[in-house]
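Incident log, support desk, overnight shift.

02:14 A customer reports that sequence design results differ from what the structure should imply. Their input is reproduced verbatim below. On-call engineer (initials T.W.) acknowledged and began investigating.
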């Protein structure tokens, strides 16, 4: 009986109550109240970004124009001297080339592999089994980078690692991997691709879910092949998702650090080796600032890295305005 009475009681619509209260206020006060509520909701996130991002970023820019040391509060203004010293270093240019090579290889590999896996998970698997495979694909992304990188170090061991064992099974020559200047960076790319692929697969799955199945069915009934349907319908409609993945992958690859640091020496002092073949810009910033204690030079490197990422993002945005299809 009590349950029946509870079910018969009218439900309170708190949204409707709030709307009526706003209507009871004068229009000007209602607008002020809405703004205050909005600012109150944004304030915690804005405070976190200000304290942990904007203030350190501004101070970093300040340090780049000074001769600054963490051991001494005294600072000497040097203007653009840090940037002049930076651009005169051959190792800095090598780090930029390594970062560019890393990015140019990783972005296409990430986009095509993630999209291919997303299409398989969406079309080739049942809904019940698809959840299990989605979890399996996404699992590497949520595992600790350092722990998985240590496992990949053992996999790429040139003497008894799994990678060379598999190459021997198919009668291919063993590779030096992390001990080779030619194969060290590709080995890091394999680890990075394995670790980050799940995130981009989930993003592509979200984009594919917004493609109307009615369009696909109509095109199929008209006799269009799968490849043509993908080129003419699916690919244009997920172009905003593709653009987002490209921008996100560009930022992540230019800032790659943890895998390289762990797989190429880490605390033993060999990070970026052998022979600086895996020294990217992010690794060089860390070594300059926290190993050699040249904080002003490291700050200048960080500013240059920021400008590079900002420029690449701007170019991608300019290209996207011409080829991305927004419904």
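02:41 Re-run completed on a clean worker. Output:
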């Amino acid at each position: 009986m009590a349950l029946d009475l509870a079910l018969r009681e009218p439900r309170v619509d708190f949204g409707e109550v709030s709307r009526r209260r706003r209507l009871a206020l004068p229009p000007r006060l209602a607008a002020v109240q809405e703004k205050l509520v909005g600012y109150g909701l944004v304030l915690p996130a804005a405070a976190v970004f200000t304290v942990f991002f904007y203030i350190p970023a501004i101070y970093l820019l300040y340090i780049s124009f000074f001769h600054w040391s963490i051991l001494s509060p005294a600072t000497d203004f040097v203007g653009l001297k840090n940037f002049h010293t930076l651009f005169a270093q051959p190792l800095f240019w090598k780090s930029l080339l390594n970062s560019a090579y890393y990015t140019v290889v990783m972005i296409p590999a990430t986009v095509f592999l993630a999209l291919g896996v997303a299409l398989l998970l969406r079309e080739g698997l049942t809904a019940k089994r698809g959840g299990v495979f989605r979890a399996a694909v996404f699992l590497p992304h949520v595992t600790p980078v350092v722990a998985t990188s240590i496992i990949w170090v053992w996999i790429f061991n040139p003497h008894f690692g799994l990678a060379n064992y598999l190459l021997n099974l198919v009668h291919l020559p063993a590779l030096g991997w992390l001990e080779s200047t030619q194969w060290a960076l590709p080995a890091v790319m394999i680890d990075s691709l394995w670790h980050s692929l799940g995130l981009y697969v989930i993003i592509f799955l979200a984009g594919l879910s917004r493609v109307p199945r009615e369009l696909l069915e109509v095109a199929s009934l008209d006799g269009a092949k799968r490849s043509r349907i993908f080129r003419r319908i699916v690919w244009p409609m997920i172009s905003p998702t593709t653009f987002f993945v490209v921008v996100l992958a560009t930022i992540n690859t230019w800032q790659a650090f943890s895998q390289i640091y762990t797989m190429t020496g880490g605390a033993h002092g060999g990070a970026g080796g052998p022979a600086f073949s895996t020294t990217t810009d992010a690794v060089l910033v860390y070594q300059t600032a926290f190993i050699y204690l040249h904080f002003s030079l490291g700050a200048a490197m960080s500013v240059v890295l920021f400008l590079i990422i900002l420029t690449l993002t701007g170019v991608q945005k300019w290209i996207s305005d011409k080829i991305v299809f927004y419904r």
